[in-house]
């Protein structure tokens, strides 16, 4: 599928992960909210955003790429620069990767009422996604995707922190 001129690998697998993930999120949200004293609605939204991020990034694609961790590592400094700046599907691909984890990171901050879980997600989830993509058919890792995902997630943490300050103790969600 093409979104803003950038290829987004969506498939039947993406839909399957969304359906199963939604069912699991609904079942898990109430229990998680009770155990943690988080808002049920905020917990459900966070789990659904997590499901969507996984469905878009960790389902097989149709393109043929060189897989494995070595396909992700640059050969030299010039290759590193090219990978960071030009391997994510152009400006549209970089923007899509920037916004991919932004709402999830913000939702985690708002749901948990803490910044640290959002920062941990912002730094770790993109690494896990890119590492997993080295092993998935039709997917490949990209350093520019990694940088864009981390940047977007950190922006989401900042936004979630801003929302927490604005909502304060009014109960919010």
UniProtKB/TrEMBL annotation:
The keyword Transmembrane applies. Signal peptide: none annotated. Keywords: Membrane, Transmembrane, Transmembrane helix. It comes from Prauserella flavalba. The keyword Transmembrane helix applies. It comes from the Bacteria. Residues 45-159 form the VanZ-like domain. This is VanZ-like domain-containing protein. It holds the Pfam family VanZ. The chain crosses the membrane at residues 12-29, 38-58, 84-108, 115-134, 146-164.
């Amino acid at each position: 599928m093409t979104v803003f001129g950038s290829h987004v690998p969506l498939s039947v697998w993406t839909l399957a992960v969304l359906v199963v993930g939604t069912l699991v999120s609904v079942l898990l949200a109430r229990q998680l909210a009770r155990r943690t004293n988080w808002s049920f609605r905020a917990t459900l939204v966070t789990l659904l955003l997590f499901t969507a991020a996984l469905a878009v990034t960790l389902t097989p694609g149709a393109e043929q790429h060189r897989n494995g961790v070595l396909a992700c590592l640059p050969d030299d400094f010039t290759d590193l620069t090219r990978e960071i700046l030009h391997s994510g599907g152009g400006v549209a691909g970089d923007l899509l990767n920037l916004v991919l984890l932004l709402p999830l990171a913000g939702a985690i901050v708002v749901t948990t009422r803490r910044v640290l879980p959002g920062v941990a997600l912002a730094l770790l989830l993109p690494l896990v996604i890119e590492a997993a993509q080295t092993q998935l058919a039709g997917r490949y890792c990209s350093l520019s995707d990694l940088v864009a995902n981390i940047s977007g997630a950190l922006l989401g943490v900042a936004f979630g922190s801003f929302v927490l300050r604005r909502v304060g103790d009014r109960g919010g969600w």
